[in-house]
Amino acid sequence: MDEIEQVRSGHVVIGVDTHKHIHVAAVMDSVGAILATLTIATVTAGFTQLLEWAGGFGKIIAFAIEGTGSYGAGLTSFLRRAGDKVVEAGRPDWRLRRLNGKSDTLDAENAARSVLAGLATATSKTADGQVEMIRLLKIAHDTAVTARTAAMITLKNVLVHTPDDLRATTRHMSAATLAYVQRRTAEGLSKREIIRCLKRYVIREVYHDIKHRPEAPATTS
């Protein structure tokens, strides 16, 4: 036992293989020896357990985490707030997986080895600040554009099955819409303001047409 202790450097690297509900961690000494493994739940209590557990093996050099921007985002943020260094561990080489097999423990060990080998050097994204704000705004914008496109497609499909007189009304509205856009543009309105006004106009016209449409006479058997 004394001989084993003598080869330990006192510095460790933690490799983590991340999943949706659990994370698997492996502690590796700086001389390349696997000291222990641990499976935790992806909750704050699990993250705290991992940090306390890892600190018991020596001074932590870094945490090598797979998927810092996906399943490992929560753990990455937790460790960064605790003051620990976190690096992005790439996915293991498929040739190594073919030779050594595939398991969560092996993936965690390979993540730790990638730090010691100098292969994992990319610092994880902070997931906060202005960059994160811009990313969230872009997601919201892209979602809105997708929803708008889907709504337009649905509306066009619905109009295909409407009565001829209603379709004629919409064709007339198309010509009127073009004239409206040209007039509003000449008045100095922006494209966004014109679209907002058009939406209100179209809704009023369609509602008026539907509200005043005579009901079909009831059929008798």
List the helices and strands and how they pair.
Elements: H1 2-6, E1 11-18, E2 22-29, E3 34-41, H2 44-55, E4 59-65, H3 73-81, E5 86-88, H4 94-100, H5 104-116, H6 129-160, H7 164-186, H8 191-211
Parallel strand pairs: 1-4, 4-5
Antiparallel strand pairs: 1-2, 2-3
Helix pairs in contact: 7-8
Global geometry: elongated
Number of strands: 5
CATH architecture of the largest domain: 2-Layer Sandwich
- The CATH homologous superfamily of the largest domain is named ATPase, nucleotide binding domain
Strand order of the largest sheet: 3-2-1-4-5
CATH fold description of the largest domain: Nucleotidyltransferase, domain 5
Figure out the total of helices.
8
Mind telling me the CATH class of the largest domain?
Answer: Alpha Beta
Quaternary status: single chain
Beta-strand content: 15-25%
**Overall SS class:** alpha/beta
What would your notes on this structure say?
With 221 residues, the protein is an alpha/beta fold. The chain contains 8 helices and 5 strands. It has 2 domains: 124 residues, Nucleotidyltransferase, domain 5; 82 residues, no CATH class. The chain is 55% helix and 15% strand. A 5-stranded mixed sheet has the order 3-2-1-4-5. β1 and β2 form a beta hairpin. α7 runs antiparallel to α8. The longest helix is centred in the middle third of the chain and has 32 residues. The N and C termini lie far apart (96 Å).
Features:
221 residues, Nucleotidyltransferase, domain 5, 2 domains, five-stranded mixed sheet, 5 strands, 15% strand
